[in-house]
Here is the input.
Amino acid sequence: MSAHDEGVHSGSGYFHMKGVALSILLMGLSLVGIIIAYVIFGHIGPSFSAERINVQQAELRKEYGLPEQEVIRNQTILLTPPSLRDLNQDTIKG
Here is the structure.
């Protein structure tokens, strides 16, 4: 072995583990941030998105002078993608 090899292996054997430790620390801090955000804001759910879309559509219809459209409030319909809402149940079952 050369003198250089002894210097690398004799000192701190865990020098290369600092990057791993910092990565794990960063992931932990990210998870803590996500948990804090969830506690502060709570579970928003699909009703928030549906209400936001209704507000946006109403604003755009008013801005461009389009006729009013019926607002859908039924949760089962809102959870179904728009492309599948008009399909018959017999068609889905095959």
